[in-house]
Amino acid sequence: MEEPVTEEYTYIVVGGGIAGVTCAEHLYILHPEAQTLVLTATPLIKAVTNVLPLTKTLDTFEVEEHDPNTLQSKCPSVSVIQDCMARLDVEKQLVHTSAGRCFSYQKLCVCTGATPKVLAERGPHVVWLRDTESAQQFQTRIKDARRIMIVGNGGIATEMVYEVTGVEIIWAMKDKHMTAHFIDPGAAEFMQPELIREKDEGPTISKRRKYTVEHSSQISRTSLIGGSLGPDWHSGLKLKGKTERKIIMEKEVEVKRIFEPMEVMQLEEAITRLNSEEGEWPVYVELTNGKIYGCDFIVSAIGVTPNVSAVTTGNNFALGEDGGLLIDEKMRTTEKNIFAAGDVCSPGWQVAPHWFQMRLWTQARQMGSYASKCMWSSLAGEEIYMDFCFELFSHATKFFGHKVILLGLFNGQGLDGKYEILLRYTRGMEYIKCVMVEGRMQGAVLIGETDMEETFENLILNQMDLSEYGEDLLNPDIDIEDYFD
Ligand code: FAD
To answer: Which InterPro entries did the record assign (predicted)?
Structure first.
């Protein structure tokens, strides 16, 4: 077979998600005369807009989906090609695509994201959320649903339980309390009233372009590797079932088996019925606590697996424990001239005491930006230093309608339970938790409009001894910003 003509680029970025697009934009700033290629499986790419700095390490921003031309006209030496990387030849520094094209690179950045883990028995009754198309499928299915089961306890499951109305939700989680990856039992209790409340039906107008019909039909051809959605995945969608909202939490459980109605006939006695007129359900789920619930469908929200197969096939990349491409402090994988950023990678460097990886928008953007500097510096022979954002974990989000800011070891991560907690709690208003070790702040959870993020960020970063303030640190009558800013 005839070899395809090799098209030459200085930089190639694989993936049009936040990590990939940020990396390409910053490569253009650093090295505008170099030819950069963004190779992406989907027709639309992500763009970060409305960036507002909150603290030194934390910005809030919105993410939109754009036509690739937007990036190409902003960064003229960046080309975007919609095609899929099928094979990577690390020796010859070549990327082969599904459409049969071949591109050479001097530096390559892999930003192929992650794919949702799906319950072992996936079948037609199991859905998951990842991209625009899966969100639309969810919308279509929910409108005829009376009851769904949501399995998982992370950000996506939490958002979904909050956003979906007019349906009974069985929320099955492995942990002892809801949203355990992000908040402790106290904060979970703070959020509880919002969990039960039926939401007002607000307007469902989306300012993004991602939910239009023509885009979704384009996307369906490549649905397996669409870019991940973010915090506003539900905006523009009507997520209403056809009954009354009710939440039943099943804690410390996993899914044991999924049954078709026929299979469950002999188990009639064992089925947990929430009312006497339930009738038959399209699917039944047995949990490890022995309960069997019927429902219309099951949502699998049990985490993600890094998308590495396109690069690992035939190559020897080292992987992290969670299956991501292992990278060093210069974002380099173990293969020459190949970098990685975003959900696909696993940091293998000695991370700062108050930072850790979580596969989130914020980190995809930070890593994409830093990876561009690393790629450019390795070509230009310039020395660079690790970006300051890797000094402190910080994340801003919304849970159950409340503003949530997480800083440092906010859940006592890695502290082996050897920490104290300072708490300030005003029902319905604010929840402030500080994780303290020997009088020094290690992390914080700020829920509500607390305005403390900057002060607490400083206190975690500078590790000031706060023992003398004791509980007064959170005394509402003392303006601690005056002391520490
Ligand atoms: P992605 O955005 O997944 O982009 C990967 C890109 O690679 C895509 O463009 C894909 O088409 C492309 N690609 C993959 N394979 C190939 C290939 N072989 N060839 C060419 N291109 C390829 N994070 C938050 O911070 N807050 C939230 O509230 C939040 N909510 C979320 C809700 C949902 C429903 C989901 C799914 C995720 C959510 N996340 C949230 C996580 C966040 O979306 C991700 O961490 C982030 O988008 C990762 O960005 P990325 O660029 O690494 O990967």
So the answer is: FAD-bd_OxRdtase, FAD/NAD-bd_sf, FAD/NAD-binding_dom, FAD/NAD-linked_Rdtase_dimer_sf, NAD(P)-bd_dom_sf
